């Protein structure tokens, strides 16, 4: 052996590495010999890039095992030969065992076949048995459900709605989900809400019948209570007289004491009878309340009952105009007294159906209505006896209801008043009549076929514009509303004068005039305003109302002259006291409504302006489509309006319409719809404005020269804008003198917006790169200068 070469002494790091490698070799050898998992060593070896050591140990291990394998094979060779011989000897036994097993299997199958068929029959029988049990349970369940259904139907037929609802609730809560029959379940799900709705309708109908019946019962009950109060008052007076006689005799007999106790006992017995169950029946009400509680509709029923009773109270608080109040006042107050006697019983025995606050609300409502009626009716009373009769009956009403805890101080305060309310009631009556007259108006010109109709509807109110009688049939420029309202106003004047003439006051024209002003300025004006705001929906209707207002202006002159004549005042004095037209609000509203409807109609035509090609290079010779349509409509409108509208009204309306057209055109040019404008489009708008100017020229026969000039000022903005854009020097707009003289109606912001759209794209900032050496159009240059100046201003 060669001696190893001398090596340099390694440093501490190298020695540590060699010892680590030796440790890994030992671990690998140990793992291979012990048959352990070599996965970690393989991953580590290949990870470090040195698989030679692992392969070397594996090869050594394989060579060491080869000899062992040879020794094992040699040792077990004879045993393997003997095992094969033993297996060959068992082959015959296996064949006999196989035949024996086959025979046994055949016998077993022949014996078990009947048993298997019996087992199948048994399984089938058990399945049938289970199905039968399920069917029996389902049928039993359905029978119980049908029993409840039958019971519910029986209760419904007999009117036992509560028991029927209980059956329905039981079906829904206990049986519905468990019902296996889909048909029956669907039927129940469908019928249960129907039954509840049916019960609700039935009890609601019964309640409605009771609400009708209780009104009659309440009237009788109120008469009975007030009659008892009257009898008690008489007994008190009689007793007071007897006590006075007894005092005069200086002693009180025992009989008188017994008599007095007897009176009080009778009173208590009567009050007990009044509050007894036989006086009035609340069973339908409480039954309906109980049913709605069962249906979980308690709050809705309370509201329904309260609302209906409130409506009944309002109805009972209205005084019939067919019967004099002196004849109907007892029934009127008895009805209200009975109403609150019933409500007191419901409050005490209704189980929360109505609260004390709600009863107090109804009582306050009734007191307010009664006070209003009393004040109204006292103004009609001209006889002290009549006033005394009503006052006595109202005081008896207070005594009757004070027993039930109602406060009647407000009624007693009304009884102490004796102020004249006649004109207030008269104004109220006229308001109702005018509302009815206006509601019946069909917004059509009135046709008068006979002379007496003309005299009754025109001459009697001095509405004629000429002293020459027209030919008949005559179509008036106003509708039936005008003479109907004139008749109402004339009747008011005559009634007011008639009333005031018997009041001991000689000079009462100022009073009549004051109430006439209120009638015209408040009642008629408000009614006309309401009519205009709610019933006028078309141009023809608005035009008719505007025409009516012009006729009303002449009628008002007649009203004040008529009042002066009836009051004995000279007409010249009445004329000096005249004020402005009292129907100014409704007149302005009628004209504004007409203008608004016409503007809406114009807006429909103005939608055609969207079809205009704003970048076209061709000028429309006959104007744009939208303007032609507008001119046709305006000409038709004028020809129709001339027949009924006065010239001044027509002028105001047309001026608003033309101004609106101008605003729409300017708004379109300034708006987002138009992105860019061509000079041809501007010239097309110029043609449109010329058409409007031609239309206004056609109106000269109807207008004065001054009015014609004012008419053209309606579209002065669009005219000045077009003139500016078509001018060769648009920058003159920023010159204050020129602007004031020629463009005073223009807003610089609108001018800037339209000018930006009219600017040639080649003159923009980016367009100047390719045309830097070319000469710019003078007009475009002027337009750019204008835009720049306007931007500086803004």
From TrEMBL:
Superkingdom, natural source: Eukaryota
Assigned keywords, A-Z: Exocytosis, Transport
Region Disordered: start-end pairs: 1-20
Domain called Exocyst complex subunit EXOC6/Sec15 C-terminal: residue spans: 411-757
Tagged with keyword Transport: yes
Pfam families: EXOC6_Sec15_N (PF20651), Sec15_C (PF04091)
Residue intervals of the Exocyst complex component EXOC6/Sec15 N-terminal domain: 57-226
Residue spans of biased composition, Basic residues class: 1-10
PANTHER family linked to this entry: EXOCYST COMPLEX COMPONENT SEC15B, SEC15
Family label: Belongs to the SEC15 family.
Entry function: Component of the exocyst complex involved in the docking of exocytic vesicles with fusion sites on the plasma membrane.
Protein name: Exocyst complex component
Species assigned in the record: Brassica napus
């Amino acid at each position: 052996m060669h001696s190893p070469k001398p090596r340099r002494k390694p440093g501490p790091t190298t020695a540590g590495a060699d010892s680590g490698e030796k440790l890994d070799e030992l671990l690998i050898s140990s793992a291979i010999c012990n048959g352990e998992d070599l996965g970690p060593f393989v991953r580590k070896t290949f990870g470090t890039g040195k698989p030679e050591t692992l392969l070397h140990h594996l090869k050594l291990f394989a060579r060491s095992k080869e000899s062992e394998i040879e020794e094992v094979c040699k040792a077990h060779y004879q045993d393997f030969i003997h095992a094969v011989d033993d297996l060959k000897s068992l082959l015959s036994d296996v064949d006999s065992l196989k035949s024996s097993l086959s025979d046994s299997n055949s016998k077993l199958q022949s014996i078990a076949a009947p048993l298997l068929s019996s087992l199948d029959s048994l399984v089938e029988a058990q399945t049938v048995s289970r199905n039968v049990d399920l069917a029996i349970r389902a049928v039993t369940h359905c029978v119980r459900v049908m029993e409840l259904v039958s019971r519910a139907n029986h209760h419904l037929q007999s009117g036992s709605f509560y028991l029927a609802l209980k059956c329905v609730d039981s079906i829904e809560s206990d049986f519905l989900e468990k019902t296996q029959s889909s048909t029956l379940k669907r039927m129940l799900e469908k019928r249960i809400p129907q039954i509840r709705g049916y019960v609700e309708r039935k009890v609601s109908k019964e309640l409605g019948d009771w609400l009708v019946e209780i009104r009659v019962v309440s009237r009788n009950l109120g008469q009975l209570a007030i009659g008892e109060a009257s009898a008690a008052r008489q007994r008190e007076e009689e007793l007071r007289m007897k006590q006075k006689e007894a005092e005069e005799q200086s002693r009180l007999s025992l009989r008188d004491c017994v008599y007095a106790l007897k009176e009080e006992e009778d009173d208590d017995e009567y009050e007990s009878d009044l509050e007894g169950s036989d006086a009035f029946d609340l069973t339908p009400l409480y039954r309906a309340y109980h049913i709605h509680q069962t249906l979980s509709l308690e709050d809705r029923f309370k509201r329904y009952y309260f609302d209906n009773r409130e409506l009944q109270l309002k109805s009972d608080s209205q005084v019939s105009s067919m019967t004099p109040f002196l004849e109907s006042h007892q029934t009127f107050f008895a009805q209200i007294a009975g109403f609150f006697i019933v409500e007191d019983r419901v409050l005490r025995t209704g189980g929360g159906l109505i609260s004390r606050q709600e009863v107090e609300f109804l009582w306050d409502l009734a007191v307010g209505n009664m006070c209003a009626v009393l004040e109204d009716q006292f103004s009609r009373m001209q006889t002290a006896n009549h006033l005394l009769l009503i006052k006595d009956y109202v005081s008896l009403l207070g005594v009757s209801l004070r027993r039930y805890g109602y406060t009647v101080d407000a009624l007693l305060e009304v009884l102490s008043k004796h102020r004249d309310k006649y004109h207030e009631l008269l104004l109220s009556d006229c308001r109702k009549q005018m509302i009815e007259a206006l509601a019946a108006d069909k917004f059509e010109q009135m046709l008068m076929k006979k002379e007496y109709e003309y005299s009754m509807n025109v001459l009697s109110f001095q509405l004629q514009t000429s002293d020459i009688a027209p030919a008949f049939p005559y179509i008036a420029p106003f509708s039936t509303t005008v003479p109907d309202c004139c008749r109402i106003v004339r009747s008011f004047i005559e009634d007011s004068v008639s009333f005031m003439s018997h009041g001991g006051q000689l000079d009462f024209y100022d009073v009549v005039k004051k109430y006439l002003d209120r009638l015209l300025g408040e009642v008629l004006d408000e009614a006309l305003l309401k009519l205009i705001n709610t019933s006028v929906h078309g141009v023809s209707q608005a035009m008719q109302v505007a025409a009516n207002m012009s006729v009303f202006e002449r009628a008002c002159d007649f009203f004040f002259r008529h009042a002066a004549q009836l009051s004995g005042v000279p007409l010249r004095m009445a004329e000096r006291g005249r004020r402005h037209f009292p129907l100014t609000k409704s007149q302005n509203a009628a004209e504004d409504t007409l203008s608004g409807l016409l503007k809406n109609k114009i807006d429909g035509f103005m939608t055609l302006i969207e079809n205009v090609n704003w970048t076209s290079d061709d000028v429309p010779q006959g104007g744009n489509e939208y303007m032609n349509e507008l001119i046709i409509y305006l000409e038709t409108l004028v020809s129709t309006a001339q027949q009924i509208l006065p010239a001044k009204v027509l002028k105001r309306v047309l001026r608003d319409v033309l101004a609106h057209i101008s605003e729409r055109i300017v708004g379109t040019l300034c708006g987002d719809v138009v992105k860019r404008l061509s000079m041809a489009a501007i010239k097309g708008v110029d043609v449109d404005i010329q058409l409007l100017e031609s239309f206004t020229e056609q109106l000269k026969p109807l207008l004065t020269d001054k009015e014609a000039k004012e008419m053209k000022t309606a579209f002065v903005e669009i005219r000045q804008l077009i003139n500016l854009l078509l001018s060769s020097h648009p920058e003159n707009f920023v010159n204050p003198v020129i602007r004031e003289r020629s463009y005073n109606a223009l807003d610089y912001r609108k001018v800037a917006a339209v000018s930006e759209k009219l600017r040639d794209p080649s003159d923009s900032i980016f367009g100047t790169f390719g045309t830097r050496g070319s000469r710019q159009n003078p007009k475009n240059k002027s337009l750019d200068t204008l835009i720049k100046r306007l931007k500086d201003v803004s």
